[in-house]
Amino acid sequence: MKKQTVLKASLVGLASIFVLSGCIQSTSCCSGDDVKPNNQPAVAVQPTMPHDVAQVTESKPELLKISGIGYGAESTFGAYTPGQRRLMAIRASKLDAYRALAEQLYGVKIDSNTSISTLTAKSDSFRARVNAVVRGARIVSVTPMADRNYETVLEVYVDKRFFEQTFVYTASKTNVSSPESVYQVSSY
């Protein structure tokens, strides 16, 4: 036990000597001598900006107005009061307008399936989906129409860069072929 404490103390002492010996060999920062070691002249260093670096300037957002129009019809269910039918038709037109707005902002995912039997189409089905969050839209108008229908117009202002970031095919820098070059037939 005694040997271990003596060994630890000597290791701590050696480490202290090495650390402090580095301080002795360095020049003092507070001595006031302007002479550098090895008799090198003092050089004044001024911070400079490299000329090659382009300054990043944020451009003003280029806002685009996107509008969505939705329609809703009053229910003919007799248990609802006329006020309930009107409010539900307005709500339906508002939701339809949000759907139309989301389609323009984020696109529509279409799933389709076609079954063919004996070289004729047996069944053909399509399914369209929109899955999006729309924020900042405002209601422009809710208009009653003929036959107890309602039309709602929504609008939202979106920065042009939104579409470049949302859709992959507009953000890529790939070279797009002209339609004429796609349909050219080359001889073999």
| Number of β-strand runs | 5
The H-and-E topology, N to C, reads as HEHEEEEHHH
CATH class of the domain at 63-106 and 133-173: Alpha Beta
Bin the strand percentage.
Answer: 25-35%
Query: Using only CA atoms, what is the Rg?
Result: 37 Å
Helix percent reads 25-40%
Please give the largest β-sheet. Answer: 3 strands, antiparallel
Secondary-structure-based class equals alpha+beta
State the distance separating the first and last CA atoms: 92 Å
CATH domain fold name of the domain at 63-106 and 133-173 = Endonuclease I-creI
Strands of the widest sheet, in order across it, are: 1-5-4
Keywords: Cell projection, Cilium, Flagellum
Domain Lipoprotein LPP20-like: 81-156
Pfam family, one: LPP20
Organism: hydrothermal vent metagenome
Can you put this structure into words, describing what you see?
- This protein is α+β, with helices and mostly antiparallel strands.
- The protein has a domain at 63-106 and 133-173: Endonuclease I-creI (Roll), CATH 3.10.28.
- It has 5 helices and 5 strands.
- The chain has helices at 2-25, 82-106, 160-166, 168-171, 179-182; strands at 63-73, 109-117, 120-129, 138-144, 149-159.
- The protein has a 3-stranded antiparallel beta sheet.
- Strand 4 and strand 5 form a beta hairpin.
- The radius of gyration is 37 Å and the shape is elongated.
- The mean pLDDT is 77.
